[in-house]
Specification:
With 69 residues, the protein is an alpha+beta fold. The protein contains two helices and three strands; from the N terminus they run ββαβα.
Length: 69
């Protein structure tokens, strides 16, 4: 998950805006899968969400990305 804060001004008063980008990954546990593979898929999804802009969610599954170890 990535958070960023932007300072903007509304009516001369500072206002903080928090944006969130999420990378979500899922898998069906098996003997061939590992936690490292799942984390790698989540990191890929987070990178995709960041590339698409603020306030985004990107979802992947380990099988979608061919990341089985």
């Amino acid at each position: 998950m990535a958070l960023s804060c932007e300072n903007s001004h509304v009516d001369g008063m500072p206002a903080s805006v928090v944006t969130v980008s999420l990378g979500v990954a899922c898998t069906i546990p098996s003997a061939e899968s590992s936690a490292a593979t799942l984390v790698r898929a989540a990191e890929e999804a987070l990178s995709e969400a960041k590339r698409k802009g603020r306030d985004r969610v990107a979802v992947s599954s380990v099988l979608d990305y061919g990341l089985m170890d």
